[in-house]
Design a protein that fits this description.
Layout lengths: L15 E5 L5 H10 L3 E5 L3 H10 L7 E2 L3 H5 L4 E4 L4 H8 L5 H4 L5 E4 L5 H13 L3 E4 L2 E2 L1 H7 L2 E6 L2 H11 L3 E8 L3 H29 L4 H8 L7 H11 L9 H18 L4 H15 L16
Parallel strand pairs: 1-2, 1-4, 2-3, 4-5, 5-6, 8-9
Antiparallel strand pairs: 7-8
Helix pairs in contact: 9-11, 9-12, 9-13, 12-13
């Protein structure tokens, strides 16, 4: 049985697709595409993970794995991608064995990696020169959102191409929204990460303060969660922060990578991000404490 939770899918015609990258996000996202009835070919740098994925979804529409991104992309109308960073993205897109080398004119490359806006624009231009379309589409919702098919997806690209992709991508999405021109999806994800950084730091200070004051923090969080202090972070991370539990969720290393993209973009566009820069350094402190893979809510560890 698949670990993918049940979900009602909108009726869409079966589409040949590829999915490049089967990490904690890509594995379930590709699985939702298979469960929705699409013919999915997967590629992963670690071939064993690709083979395991095919076995897990063997009862879907003839899933298969490919040895290279190029091979996976051949015959696909849409190629989805979710890898680690700009360099990882370039490694699966470009070159003789890259996805673009296997894609037909008129097909669409959709990138779910949280990457820079610059690389999104770069790949858009490279794809356009080959008659291939590109959508930058970073996601929010974490591993749980990917597993439950409830990701929020922020897209940049051409409206007509976006509308072609949306019915297929809704297999793993709760919202799939066009934000603007190429790169706009990545810029929107940066706004998302700026918000999260500030919220988690504020929540960390609040919980640490309440514990020092001798309050029952579970009760406090229940109460303030019904008022103006309510947030996703409070609802989903408040009590685990109070209990000193961090072995889940979005890792500190990933957040630092994302905040690095934010701060680089801020240098380019002149935005002032004093709180974000400070929280990024706080996350560096958590890394020094050994918390590279702790959840981002581990910011509170600095205050204990």
């Amino acid at each position: 049985m698949s670990s993918i939770n049940a979900k009602e899918y909108a009726a869409t015609a079966a589409t040949p697709v590829a999915f490049l990258g089967l990490g904690v996000m890509g594995h379930p996202m590709a699985g939702h595409l298979a469960r929705a009835g699409h013919a999915v070919t997967v590629y992963n740098r670690n071939a064993t993970k690709a083979q395991t994925w095919v076995q897990e979804f063997a009862d879907s529409r003839a899933p298969r794995h490919a040895a290279t991104p190029r091979e996976a992309a051949q015959g696909a109308q849409i190629v989805f991608c979710c890898v680690g960073n700009d360099d990882d993205l370039r490694s699966v897109v470009y070159g003789a064995n890259g996805a673009l080398a296997g894609m037909a004119p008129g097909s669409v490359l959709v990138d779910h990696t949280t990457a820079s806006a610059n690389v999104a624009r770069e790949i858009h231009d490279a794809a356009k020169n080959l008659g291939i379309h590109f959508i930058d589409a970073p996601v929010s919702g974490g591993q749980a959102g990917a597993q439950n098919g409830l990701l929020t997806v922020m897209c940049g690209g051409d409206a007509e191409v976006f509308e072609r992709v949306k019915p297929v991508a809704m297999a793993f999405s709760r919202a799939f929204t066009l934000m603007g021109a190429p790169g706009a999806g990545q810029l929107t994800k940066m706004v998302n990460q700026i918000c999260i950084a500030g919220l988690v730091q504020g929540l960390s200070e609040a919980i640490a303060f309440g514990q020092r004051a001798g309050l029952d923090m579970d009760l406090v969080l229940d109460v303030i969660g019904k008022g103006a202090a309510q947030s996703w972070q409070l609802d989903n991370r408040g009590k685990t922060m109070a209990a000193d539990q961090f072995n889940f969720g979005f890792a500190v290393d990933w957040m630092r990578k994302d905040l690095g993209l934010v701060l680089d973009e801020a240098k380019r566009n002149g935005a002032r991000l004093p709180v974000t820069a400070l929280v990024d350094q706080f996350y560096a402190d958590v890394q020094l404490m050994g918390g590279h893979r702790w959840d981002t809510s581990s910011l509170i560890k600095r205050l204990r």
